[in-house]
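Researcher: Sequence of Putative pterin-4-alpha-carbinolamine dehydratase follows. Predict its structure.
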Amino acid sequence: MTALLNEAQITSQLSDLPGWTREGTELVGVFVFKQYLDGVAFAGRVGEAAEAANHHPEMLIGWRKVTVRVSTHSAGGLTELDFALARRANELAGE
Ligand SMILES: C[C@H](O)[C@H](O)[C@H]1CNC2=NC(N)=NC(=O)C2=N1
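Model: Prediction complete. Tokens:
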């Protein structure tokens, strides 16, 4: 099982993760788009990456905005898997 990160590790990784915040045991990323369907397509890309990593976020698709929430359910908090997915989402937002 992937180990829970400690507060120092979380703070350090968050400082290098633009667009994301920590809410309790979750990372929350908010992505804004010019077009609604751009957000839908982004969510699809993140979904594919999540499936490939077997690490799945919750995603709320709104009007030209997608909110991504991720935590490691099996560990009950934040692990490296969550930050890896968040970094990948940031890459995919730029595509
Ligand atoms: C059995 C399967 O590998 C697990 O349930 C995976 C699926 N996707 C997951 N996604 C997230 N966010 N956390 C998990 O602990 C997790 N576990």
